[in-house]
């Protein structure tokens, strides 16, 4: 098995990039969501109740408990943490010296601190996924600087660490849990759209924030939509076990299938950083050989022609063909694929029942856990073999300590993850070792392992429900309040806002699925609009003059529920069409008994005004200054500006990298090694899967 130094490097850079985007995206929304004049002020979530400092920190693990020591309120503490997180992630993305476990631990702790007070606006699966991935990055990050080649050749600890592959294996296990569970829950939910293979005929127009490409995808023929659902089940349920395949090409095939799915989702939907984070997880399926810029001719030269290796290659090829054939047969058989040559279509249907699927799931859930355990056992054996190759008593002792610590940690995290993974099959969940349940319960608040299951049910089968806010000065003439990102104006094309997540727009989508009483925060939103609070208005329209009531707050506010559909191709100048359904929120004004009753019912009244803090605090003034500089920018512009700056700096680093530095006299006069001697030395080295500096480093593409 090839090494994983380059994939680990890509993983760490990817995690840093996602953290940067997540922190920066959240920073732009903090005043409107969590400020003193926001929808859900963060100060309400942290109220000391006479408990000890460490007890309250364990029960609510957030660094924001220490904000008053800096003279900051909770919202200002959120801004400070978001800015620090953005800068730390940016540094880790740009320089290898900052890709250290301590930096990733700070990023993880900072995002966990934010999530503890984020309330409903941070209750998304990708926030939990980022926390779990961020903690794995703490373990994957190297303890020291990248080794130099001389140390590697002498067998010193800087050459490679035997434990390196263990934490990175957990990334592959996380990717498996995410994808397999996301595929399974679509069928366990009994959603008729998924079982009827018609989910994608609704998905493109009913998802939270479609892109312009979603409109075109929605116009595709129904048979192609159904075939796409079959492909989704194949990629999410049948392919993930190949993540642990012993054959490298099978793992690469699984990698490219996952990449294809995520890229298509990015093109047709604004799912913020979620798909980017999933792509980062797929790096665990790669290896150094695949990423290195070696020509195929060079590989053929190194290949031996001995008959045992030729036989092994033939058996491997037969195994690959057998796996592909089995997948093809399963898809054709269980989804009834038939080619209609007259209509030039491929027909598909689900040929199994819910009971049959439930029995199959009950049969395979525990074996998939054993598959993960067997793969982990192989990684442990590989790590032990690497440890045996370490030379020198002191080096061997240091490597043994590291291997013991990381091995126990990896086993513990794997055991913990089995509990949320088994949620998808209740009987298997009940048969788990009780120690795993206790261990998971102990660390559950740290979100080290989570359950996943995206797109469980398809909503909006009869039309996309959409809440439209309206304001009025007299209660008779009403003006719609249009959001920047969610559907509203029928002639406005869907925006492209990835990797930003407008969290209010997302919650408006969830609110439309039920009565307003299921979304208590909506009452607070109405109150802030009646009060004309600018931080909340900027969540709706960052360019204040575009807000219809920017000069004077509306006297009355109400909300209507519509059903939206994508327009037909022949409807020129329109992207949407809609139909009124019902009143979503009654017309209210400040002091209205209905509004006051709802505020009391949901505990949203400001019983205690925020404490006045000195604005002369240097840190407070610095935060205000940064906010003034960045507030004119829309969040997607800010995020893409960050990515553009990172790209420019990366290009400069590549142009001015180590290869452009002058060589020392010793290097100039050192003779080039003979190819035969290099090949002989490689054959003499018995260590398999050395993942870093023990081999001559390959050039990157």
Report on this structure.
The protein is mainly alpha-helical and 701 residues long. It is built from 29 helices and six strands. Strand 3 and strand 4 form a beta hairpin. Helix 1 (5-27) runs antiparallel to helix 4, helix 1 packs across helix 6 (125-140) and helix 1 packs antiparallel against helix 27 (635-655). The protein is globular, with a radius of gyration of 28 Å. Residues 146-159 and 660-701 have low confidence and may be disordered.
Residue runs with pLDDT of under 50 for 5 or more positions: 146-159, 660-701
**Discrete helix count:** 29
Largest sheet: 4 strands, antiparallel
How much helicity do the residues have? 55-70%
Secondary structure blueprint with pairings:
Blueprint: H1 5-27, H2 30-34, H3 53-59, H4 74-94, H5 101-117, H6 125-140, H7 149-153, H8 165-188, H9 192-195, H10 199-206, H11 212-218, H12 222-238, H13 248-268, H14 274-281, H15 288-291, H16 296-302, H17 307-334, E1 338-340, E2 345-347, H18 354-389, H19 393-421, H20 426-430, H21 434-443, E3 464-472, E4 479-481, H22 503-511, H23 521-531, H24 534-540, E5 556-566, E6 576-588, H25 593-601, H26 618-630, H27 635-655, H28 665-669, H29 675-684
Antiparallel strand pairs: 1-2, 3-4, 3-5, 5-6
Helix pairs in contact: 1-4, 1-6, 1-14, 1-27, 4-5, 5-6, 6-8, 8-12, 8-18, 8-19, 10-11, 13-14, 18-19, 19-21
């Amino acid at each position: 098995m090839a090494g994983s130094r380059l994939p680990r490097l890509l993983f760490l850079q990817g995690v840093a990039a996602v953290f940067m985007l997540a922190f920066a995206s959240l920073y732009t929304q903090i005043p409107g969501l969590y400020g003193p004049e926001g929808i859900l002020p963060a100060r309400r979530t942290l109220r000391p109740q006479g408990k000890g400092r460490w007890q309250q920190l364990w029960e609510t693990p957030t660094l924001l408990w220490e904000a008053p020591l800096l003279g900051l309120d909770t919202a200002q503490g959120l801004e400070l943490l978001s800015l620090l997180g953005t800068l730390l992630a940016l540094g880790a993305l740009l320089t290898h010296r900052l890709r250290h476990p301590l930096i990733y631990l700070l990023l993880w702790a900072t995002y966990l601190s934010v999530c503890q007070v984020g309330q409903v606006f941070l209750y998304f699966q990708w926030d939990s996924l980022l926390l779990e991935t961020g903690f794995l990055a703490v373990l994957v990050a190297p303890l020291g600087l990248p080794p130099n080649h001389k140390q590697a050749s002498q067998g010193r600890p800087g050459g490679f660490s035997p434990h390196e592959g263990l934490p990175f294996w957990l990334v592959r296990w996380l990717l498996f849990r995410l994808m397999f569970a996301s595929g399974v829950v679509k069928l366990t939910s009994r959603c008729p759209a998924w079982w009827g293979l018609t989910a994608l005929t609704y998905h493109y127009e009913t998802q939270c924030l479609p892109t312009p490409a979603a409109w075109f995808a929605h116009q595709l023929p129904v048979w192609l939509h159904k075939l796409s659902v079959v492909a989704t089940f194949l990629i999410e349920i049948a392919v993930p076990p190949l993540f642990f395949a012993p054959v490298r090409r099978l793992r690469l095939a699984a990698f490219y299938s996952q990449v294809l799915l995520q890229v298509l989702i990015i093109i047709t939907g604004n799912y913020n950083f979620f798909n980017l984070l999933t792509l980062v997880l797929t790096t665990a399926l790669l290896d150094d050989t695949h990423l290195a810029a070696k020509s195929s001719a060079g590989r053929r030269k190194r290949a031996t022609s001995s008959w045992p290796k030729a036989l092994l290659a033939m058996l491997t090829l037969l195994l690959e063909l057998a796996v592909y054939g089995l997948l093809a047969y399963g898809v054709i058989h269980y989804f009834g694929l038939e080619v209609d040559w007259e209509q030039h279509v491929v027909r598909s249907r689900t040929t199994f029942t819910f009971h049959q699927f439930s029995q199959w799931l009950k049969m395979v859930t525990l074996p998939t856990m054993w598959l993960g355990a067997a793969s982990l056992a192989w990684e442990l054996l590989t790590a032990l073999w690497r440890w045996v190759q370490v030379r020198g008593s002191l080096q061997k002792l240091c490597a043994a300590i590291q291997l013991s610590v990381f091995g126990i940690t990896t086993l513990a995290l794997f055991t913990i993850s089995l509990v949320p993974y088994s949620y998808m099959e209740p009987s298997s969940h009940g048969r788990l070792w009780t120690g795993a349940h206790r261990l998971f319960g102990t660390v559950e608040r740290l979100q080290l392992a989570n359950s996943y299951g995206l797109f469980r049910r398809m909503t909006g089968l009869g039309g996309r429900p959409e809440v439209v806010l309206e304001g009025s000065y007299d209660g008779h003439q009403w003006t719609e309040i249009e959001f920047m990102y969610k559907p509203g104006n029928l002639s406005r094309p869907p925006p492209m806002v990835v990797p930003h997540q407008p969290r209010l727009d997302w919650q408006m989508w969830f609110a439309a699925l039920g009565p307003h009483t299921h979304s208590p925060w909506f009452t607070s939103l109405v109150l802030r609009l009646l009060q004309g609070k600018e931080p909340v208005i900027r969540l709706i329209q960052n360019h204040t003059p575009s807000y219809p009531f920017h000069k004077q707050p509306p006297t009355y506010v109400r909300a209507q529920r519509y059903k939206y559909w994508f327009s037909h191709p022949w409807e020129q100048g329109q992207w949407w069409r809609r139909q009124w359904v019902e009143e979503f929120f009654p017309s209210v004004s400040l002091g209205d008994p209905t509004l006051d009753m709802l505020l009391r019912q949901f505990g949203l009244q400001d019983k205690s005004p925020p404490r006045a803090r000195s604005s002369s605090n240097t840190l407070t003034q610095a935060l205000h200054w940064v906010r003034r500089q960045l507030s004119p920018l829309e969040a997607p512009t800010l995020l893409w500006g960050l990515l553009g700056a990172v790209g420019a700096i990366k290009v400069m680093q590549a142009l001015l990298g180590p290869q452009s530095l002058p060589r020392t006299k010793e290097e100039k006069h050192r003779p080039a090694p003979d190819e035969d001697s290099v090949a002989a030395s490689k054959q003499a080295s018995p260590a398999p899967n050395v993942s870093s500096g023990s081999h001559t480093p390959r050039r990157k593409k």
